[in-house]
Amino acid sequence: MSCNTDATVLLDSSLQAIPANSKSVFKRLCYINDASNFKELSDLSNYIIVGTLQDDAKQKLYYADSKIEYQALYGVTVSSFRIYKVFKGNLKEGETIKIAETYFTQENNGDMIQYLMDYGPSEPNREYVFFLNKEDDKNEFLEGYFSPSIREKGRYPVLNKPLFEEVTSQDIQDLKLVSVTENEYLSLLKEVRAFLNVH
């Protein structure tokens, strides 16, 4: 796996509007942690919550050089998340937090390009289970935001179907997964649904 390590200087910390009508480009980043089952996922997450992602996404971008502000090297999309239920962590039901997801959209040579940094976009106004960690002051770029603990493995749709019904690739086709295989994700999704059923 190759790593994108050039995004080292933060020059623009503001949240920006997201351009529309984009093509997608996938970029792979370096990560130390991974999870192959629910216990590992839970152990690597400080928060487990259920709620709805609001339709208010903005993006925050890293630039390499102030003279080349047209091309960001890294970015996140930040959305509000309204919490319905808390399973782990010191958050409260009814609270709204900011979640930073690792994708962004930018114009490049007249095209709108969506850069997927090991993460496909979430759908606004949809209910999700998120496994999160909160960024601390060591990460100036993401300080104060919550982020999925293990990329796409930190986000699961709440499905409107009984637990006894098998989850299939049809249930996740709109997630546009980019960093995890469908079978691996479905296996974790089944464990997440089982967890929700007993809590």
Topology:
Layout: E1 22-27, H1 38-43, E2 47-53, E3 58-63, E4 72-88, E5 96-101, E6 103-108, E7 111-117, E8 127-134, E9 146-148, E10 155-157, H2 169-172, H3 182-198
| H/E series | EHEEEEEEEEEHH
Query: What is the straight-line distance between the termini?
Result: 37 Å
Structural class: mainly beta
Helical amount: 10-25%
Sheet bearing the most strands, described?
A: 7 strands, antiparallel
Rounded to the nearest angstrom, the radius of gyration is: 17 Å
How much of the residues is beta strand, in percent?
25-35%
Give the strand tally. Answer: 10
Task: Give the uncertain stretches in residue-range form.
Answer: 1-13
Shape: globular
Q: What is the number of helical segments per DSSP (H or I, 4+ residues)?
A: 3
Q: Mean pLDDT, nearest integer?
A: 79
Task: Kindly describe this structure.
This protein is 14% helix and 35% strand. The chain is mainly beta. The strands form two sheets. Strands 2, 3, 4, 5, 8, 9 and 10 form a seven-stranded antiparallel sheet that branches. The protein has a three-stranded mixed sheet with strand order 1-7-6, with no helix packed on it. The longest helix is centred in the C-terminal third of the chain and has 17 residues.
Short note summarizing the structure:
The protein is mainly beta and about 200 residues long. It has helices at about 40-45, 170, 180-199; strands at about 20-25, 45-55, 60-65, 70-90, 95-100, 105-110, 110-115, 125-135, 145-150, 155.
